[in-house]
């Protein structure tokens, strides 16, 4: 389905009907919109955003990536959540030629690199992995794109490594429903790749006494949004994302940031093993308070690889950071947006061990 300035098509599916309904509400001047948070860091909750906030975010994206009226953009994220809705708003506010497809794992399967080219496309990591699994078809399409955004979940070392095959610029985005989509970006492929996020123009950041990021921008209506994301604040416009304060594991009095352990394991998996989903969590332990546990989906890693993990993590993060158990789970629980629901997966294991 294509939405162009001044034209809304007749929807052919329920999903298209939902996207068109939002566009009609926007074009009729609706001032407030209620969206659901994704639930990746807590219980999903409704948030009311103003038209002013959403328009400010759309124009900031346009300014950042030099989008012009008539540029073609691909919207393939769920319009039930902020990332998908904001692609619609960008199309309407910036006068883009917007192609809307349902949020499937391979959203490029019906396109042809000879006839289809996009100035902007946004994906979640799972979609990017799927696209890279089919390089003969996907790479020519991806490499015609002017800007590729990857958000909704962290870009791990495995995905970053796979993305080096792309010539088109790929950016990891940082944002949430409360900030009306992304407020910071970092390049993740090519010679300009970096681990440091750069805030977009006009976005003010700082940290609280936990080193957790707070944000103020036009998209937040200039209200301060306090996050639970622990960062290394490089300067007034740059930061490294370290992990979530509420995911910290206290084991034997030593605080372990799970995301740092996961980064090391992801680097090892990228070198040694087939791709597999995993995460680090803290489980109750009578002696330590909590023990560091590695949850792996489906894959059974050989003893030799487990030994590599147990040797590498203490060398880099100390003995307490090394997983005390490795638990294989058939299928991870997921949030409505396809992210791993860590709390639900751990709870399911504790209530009914697999």
Automatic annotation (TrEMBL):
Pfam families: AMP-binding (PF00501)
Record-annotated AMP-dependent synthetase/ligase domain positions: 37-206
InterPro entries referenced in this protein's UniProt entry, alphabetically: AMP-bd_C_sf, AMP-dep_synth/lig_dom, ANL_N_sf
Keywords: Ligase
Family the UniProt entry places it in: Belongs to the ATP-dependent AMP-binding enzyme family.
Protein name, as recorded: AMP-binding protein
Source organism: Larkinella bovis
């Amino acid at each position: 389905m294509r939405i162009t300035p001044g034209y809304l098509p007749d929807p052919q599916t329920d999903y298209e009907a939902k996207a068109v309904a939002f566009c009609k509400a926007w074009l009729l001047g609706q001032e407030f919109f209620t969206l659901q948070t994704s639930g990746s860091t807590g219980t999903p909750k409704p948030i009311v955003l103003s038209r002013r906030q959403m328009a400010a975010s759309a124009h900031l994206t346009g300014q950042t990536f030099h989008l012009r009226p008539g540029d073609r953009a691909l919207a393939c994220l769920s319009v039930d959540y902020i990332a998908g809705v904001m692609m619609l708003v960008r199309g309407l506010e910036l006068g883009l030629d917007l192609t809307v497809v349902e949020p499937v794992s391979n959203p490029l399967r019906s396109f042809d690199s000879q006839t289809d080219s996009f100035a902007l496309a946004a994906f979640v990591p799972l979609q990017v992995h799927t696209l890279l699994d089919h390089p003969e078809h996907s790479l020519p399409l991806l490499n015609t794109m002017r800007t590729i955004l990857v958000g909704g979940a962290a870009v791990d070392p495995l995905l970053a490594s796979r993305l080096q095959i792309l010539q088109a610029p790929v950016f990891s985005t940082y944002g949430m429903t409360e900030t009306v989509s992304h407020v910071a970006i970092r390049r993740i492929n090519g010679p300009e790749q970096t681990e440091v996020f750069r805030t977009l123009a006009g976005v003010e950041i700082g940290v609280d006494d936990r080193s957790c990021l707070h944000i103020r921008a036009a998209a937040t209506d200039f209200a301060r949004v306090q996050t639970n994301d622990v960062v290394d604040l490089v300067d007034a416009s740059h930061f490294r994302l370290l992990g979530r304060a509420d995911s910290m594991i206290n084991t034997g009095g030593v605080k372990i940031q799970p995301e740092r352990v996961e980064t090391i394991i992801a680097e090892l998996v990228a070198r040694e093993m087939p791709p597999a989903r995993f995460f680090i969590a803290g489980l109750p332990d009578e002696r330590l308070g909590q023990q560091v546990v590695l949850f792996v989906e489906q894959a059974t890693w050989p003893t030799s690889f487990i030994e590599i993990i147990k040797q590498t993590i203490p060398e880099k993060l100390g003995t307490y950071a090394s997983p005390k158990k490795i638990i294989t789970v058939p299928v991870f629980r997921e949030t409505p947006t396809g992210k791993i629901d860590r709390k639900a997966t751990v709870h399911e294991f504790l209530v009914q061990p697999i």
